[in-house]
Specification:
The chain folds into 5 domains: about 180 residues, MutS, DNA mismatch repair protein, Chain A, domain 3 (Orthogonal Bundle), CATH 1.10.1420; about 90 residues, Orthogonal Bundle (MutS, DNA mismatch repair protein, Chain A, domain 3), CATH 1.10.1420; about 250 residues, 3-Layer(aba) Sandwich (Rossmann fold); about 90 residues, no CATH class; about 50 residues, SH3 type barrels (Roll), CATH 2.30.30.30. With about 725 residues, the protein is α/β, with parallel strands linked by helices. InterPro entries: DNA_mismatch_repair_MutS_C, DNA_mismatch_repair_MutS_core, DNA_mismatch_repair_MutS_sf, MutS, MutS2, P-loop_NTPase.
């Protein structure tokens, strides 16, 4: 059972968070209930509250958004309905019907989408689903909050008769208006309405000549308002029907109240359910605003808040377009207490408040702005000593008040306590106050409590270094500018940078030296050592960050180069395969040429077929079996390579054409080719020997094969040596 004092709630500014949650609610009961949020008593209730909020947050981003849950409060109506022999008016029943319909819609929706909203659906299942309330009310009251004509046969007859009488009233009034207007008895305005009844606007001098009842006169007395005699008779009849209608409506509403009265407990449940949903929606909207989520709740007594933001500071800074620095902190059984030291305005107090407020919010069922890999456990008590603690009411000094608070800590502190103390030990003589603070810290430590304190006292820094399960920490400062970096570093105490900050702010160096002589040399040396270590830590932090960035860049470049090498290797392999395939085709072409020439000379089909089959078998023996998938991949790669080659070849050809056009060579007389000359194809590179010339065909020997080509397509490279 968790215990949180009012002082802790104020110290951590929890009510500011509740006001933000309440402002996100849509109903007045929801806003009132949100302001009363307190830590939940059991883990089961807490997990339900957290999961409900988390599920509602998820509804903002999926296609199954929760239906409207808004409603008007029916507390007064239900209270009145609970009184025996009482009855509500039609408008009140309309409000009840809307609440009932809203609940039914929500219950049905959550049941349908249970996979998305299991915890919210579990809450909805606690409410009875019934259409009886709507059925009873819809039979009597329409959607505008009026009694229906067919609410009862008697009411239907009365209203029918009333309508007939109203027609007669209008007819008789129209006749009277026409008659007296023709006689010139009426004023220019002719008619008016008095006490909801149509009257003639008769000039005062003719009022005695018009038969009827005078219902009033104008301010000047120049006009008398008279209801005609014929209309008056029908108006009395209408009054009788209106009385009967009123009595019948009263009877109907009494009957309806009697029918709805058994549902009074259910109506309270309905309003409670809708109020709870409204509070959950307020929590969800606030969570969305601060990027809140549900961290893992463990049983290993480990608090690990990674990249934790102070929600109030985060919202305020975002409104001003300012940066909010997150903090990462860890508490566990072998590191229970953290002592944060360092100069003021470095972020010590805000770090302390961040951890306390986030833990408090979580134990109240609110999602918190931390990294998704964060985790924590549940405390029975959260105790704080933060801010100005001077008690004017009790005439206590700051130090007396703090001692009184420490006494409360000593009474309640145990292994399920989280304590947060800002500026621990201040308010008294530094030596004596520091000694007493040291004793308090030892006591909290031996009781295995978890806590974070901020201090400037050297003895507390030393104690934190000596205790096995306590840790020093400091807020990083820039060693040159002495500006805070708002980053918590565990494992090392922080210097107060007292003299450095004084020097930066223009205090004469001579005065600072005199101040140094006033205190013990060992303290100055200790603080100076810590300051030096902090400066080194700051430098290392910057260097580490730079190295990380360079490492990331190097990895990215490495991955790019690896990709380029892979693509180049694939292209080289494809080019090699294409070249081998082309060489093979040239060889096969030559073989076919030889076979055809041989057949041309001997006309032996049997030899031709035998040699052809032999060649085919030799080629097939070289083939490897490939799967359809490998074949497809190979074909795609080959197509890409061929396409690239064709593009490149086309580019080369184009370049050659352009070059030839520019050069405009003078036509030379073509050399007469003779057997034995070294020749090549025009625009070709391969050089061969001219073996034979038959008519306009030439046989060229390229060494491994011969080829027959047109004599005109050859050009002389070297004449045969004599």
């Amino acid at each position: 059972m968790i215990s949180i004092t009012e002082k802790t709630l104020k110290d951590l500014e929890f009510y500011t968070v509740l006001e933000a949650v309440a402002s996100a609610c849509t109903t007045e009961p929801g806003r009132e209930k949100a302001l009363l949020i307190t830590p939940l008593k059991s883990k089961e209730l807490l997990m339900d509250a957290l999961l409900q909020t988390s599920e509602y947050v998820s509804s903002f981003d999926n296609n199954n958004a929760l239906p409207n849950h808004g409603f008007e409060s029916i507390t007064n109506e239900v209270k009145f309905l609970a009184i025996e022999d009482s009855y509500l008016d039609a408008g009140a029943f309309r409000k009840i019907a809307l609440v009932s319909d809203t609940v039914n819609t929500l219950v049905k929706f959550l049941d349908k989408f249970n996979d998305y909203y299991p915890t919210l659906n579990a809450r909805a299942q606690q409410v009875e689903y019934t259409k009886d309330i709507l059925k009873f009310i819809d039979k009597v009251v329409d959607k505008y909050g009026d009694i229906k004509d067919d609410a009862s046969p008697e009411l239907q007859n009365i209203r029918r008769e009333m309508n007939l009488v109203k027609v007669k009233i209008n007819q008789s009034f129209t006749m009277a208006l026409s008659q007296y207007n023709g006689l010139g008895y009426l004023d220019d305005i002719k008619e008016s309405v008095v006490e909801n009844r149509r009257v003639l606007a008769v000039s005062a001098m003719y009022r005695k000549k018009v038969k009827g009842s005078i219902l009033g006169s104008s301010k000047t007395g120049s006009i008398a308002y008279i209801e005609p005699e014929a209309t008056l008779r029908f108006s009395r009849e209408l009054n009788n029907f209106e009385y009967e209608e009123k009595e019948e409506i009263k009877r109907i509403l009494m009957q309806l109240s009697y029918a709805i009265r058994p549902f009074v407990p259910l109506l309270y449940d309905y309003q409670e359910f809708l109020t709870d949903i409204d509070v959950v929606s307020g929590k969800a909207k606030y969570a969305k605003r601060i990027n809140g989520l549900l961290p893992h709740i463990n049983d290993e007594r480990r608090l690990y808040f990674r990249e934790a933001f102070h929600p109030i500071l985060y919202v305020n800074n975002r409104a001003k377009n300012q940066v909010t620095y997150p903090q990462t902190i860890e508490l566990k059984p072998d590191n229970r207490i953290i002592v944060i030291s360092g100069p003021n305005a470095g972020g010590k107090s805000i770090t302390l408040k961040t951890i306390g407020l986030l833990q408090l919010m979580l134990q109240c069922g609110l999602l918190i702005p931390v990294h998704e890999r964060s985790e924590t456990f549940l405390f029975d008590r959260i105790m704080t000593d933060i801010g100005d603690n001077q008690s004017i009411e009790n005439h206590l000094s700051t130090y007396s008040y703090r001692l009184k608070n420490m006494n409360y800590f000593l009474k309640k502190c145990n292994d399920k306590t989280l304590f947060l103390i800002d500026e621990f030990g201040t308010g008294s003589d530094p030596e004596l106050g520091g000694a007493l603070a040291e004793i308090f810290l030892e006591e909290f430590y031996h009781r295995e409590a978890f806590g974070i304190i901020t201090t400037h006292y050297t003895n507390l820094k030393i104690l934190a270094n000596e205790l096995p399960y306590a840790t020093n920490a400091n807020m990083l400062f820039d060693e040159k500018s002495l500006e805070p970096m708002y980053k918590l570093i565990l494992g090392q105490a922080g210097s107060s940078f007292t003299f450095e900050v004084a020097q930066k702010n223009g205090i004469p160096y001579g005065l600072i030296n005199r101040a140094k002589k006033k205190i013990e040399g060992s303290k100055v040396r200790f603080d100076k050592t810590i300051a030096t270590l902090q400066k080194e830590r700051s430098k290392l932090e910057k260097t580490s960050q730079t190295l990380k960035e360079e490492e990331i860049r190097a990895r990215e470049e490495g991955r790019k180069m690896e990709g380029i090498n892979t693509r180049i290797q694939q292209k080289l392999e494809s080019y090699q395969e294409l070249y081998d395939a082309n060489q093979r085709l040239i060889y096969l072409g030559q073989k076919l040429e030889d076979m055809s020439e041989k057949y041309y000379n001997n006309k032996n089909k049997k030899d031709l077929i035998g040699e052809f089959l032999k060649m085919v078998e030799i080629e097939n023996s070289k083939r490897k079996k490939v799967t359809p998938k490998e074949k497809k991949v190979k074909e795609v790669i080959q197509k890409q390579v061929i396409a690239e080659v064709e593009v490149k070849v086309e580019e080369i050809r184009q370049e050659k054409k352009e070059k030839k056009l520019k050069e405009k060579p003078v036509d030379k007389p073509k050399a007469i080719l003779k057997i034995g000359d070294r020749v090549r194809m025009v625009d070709g590179k391969a050089v061969g020997t001219l073996d034979a010339i038959e008519k306009k065909k030439a046989t060229v020997n390229y060494g491994i094969f011969t080829s027959k080509v047109d004599l005109e397509s050859l050009e002389l490279v070297e004449a045969m040596k004599k």
